[in-house]
Amino acid sequence: MYTGFLILLSVHALIHLLGFAKAFALLKSSDLKLAVSKKSGWLWFSAFCFFIPVIVLFAFHISYWWVSALPAVFISQWLIIVYWKDARFGTLANIIIVIAALIGYANQHFYDKFKSQVTKNLQQQEATQNNLLTESDLLNLPEPVKRYLHYTGSLGKPKVRNFSVAFVGEIRKDSASAWMPFTSVQYNFMEPASRFFFLKASMFRLPVNGFHSYSDENVFMDIRLLSLLKVQYLEGREMRIAETVTFFNDMCCMAPATLIDNRITWMESDSNKVKAEFTNSDVKVQAWLYFNKEGALINFVSEDRFAAGADGLMKKLRWSTPVGDYKMVDDHMVPGEAQTIYRYPEGDFTYGRFRTVHVFYNVTAFEL
Fold this sequence. Notes:
The chain is of the alpha+beta class. The protein has helices at residues 2-23, 38-59, 65-82, 84-87, 90-124, 143-151, 237-254, and strands at residues 162-171, 180-189, 194-203, 206-214, 219-225, 229-235, 264-269, 273-280, 283-291, 297-308, 314-320, 323-324, 327-329, 332-334, 337-344, 347-361. It has 2 domains: 2-103, no CATH class; 128-361, outer membrane lipoprotein receptor (LolB), chain A (Clam), CATH 2.50.20.
């Protein structure tokens, strides 16, 4: 679809040169029967020029490409109306471009909501000295967690106040659905606990975007087709609990230095697993953390996460995120791959496969 639209833009732009060529007798075409003055010829050429930045911006995936499309379409359509007999079929191309521009605007507007929340939280971050994580900070942690922090290289690094993560991968709604490729970016803040996650996917070659917001102010998941049509919207108490589990999972998997947080209660422990409870405001969630003999976290399992059923009702299910393929990112050892799995009565269902692109800690400005 992307390539097809780029070709449409290019061909539509080039067709405007026919009017210019007709006006200056550069091309004698029987298809252009109406006379074109030199003044009008320059207008046809200007319409072509207006489409050039549209093509370039769209080709390089610049999100504001749609802004330059509107004046180009306006000039083009005005000329088409004047030379309706010869140029009327160009109206269809302009209609397609306008629809695409509206979708482009909707995509940017939806993404800007995510960006606004992140920027607001970044601005509220207090300028504090980045104290280093030391052995003394680990005194009250279970032995498997201590080994994990050593394994990930967290000691001697600044304590984590916030972090951002980018993933690529595939997701699906149910076992009968096809996998949808996606890219995602998220920002997590430790004080106050908040998480903002934006996902870009495609379904039947149409863009599907999702915005997860978790903060003291509100918690919701908003999934939209073309950034206009709401496919799924969830909020409420169950969503807050589910997103609290996700927030704790992010701490464990992507920012292990945050496991010194005093909102965590370590409950049970043996050589390779630990049970923990995380409390945020009036929500308490629990999870088992599993480690291998090298000290790496290999799974996170919670019974407290909810999933939306086909009837739209939220149901509490076992949720696990096996992780692996550890690699060094931003001087920290983090999982390179992960899966998200719900356990239904009929069996496990893997609905997400993630690959880590980057992880940044203690960020001070919004980045794509």
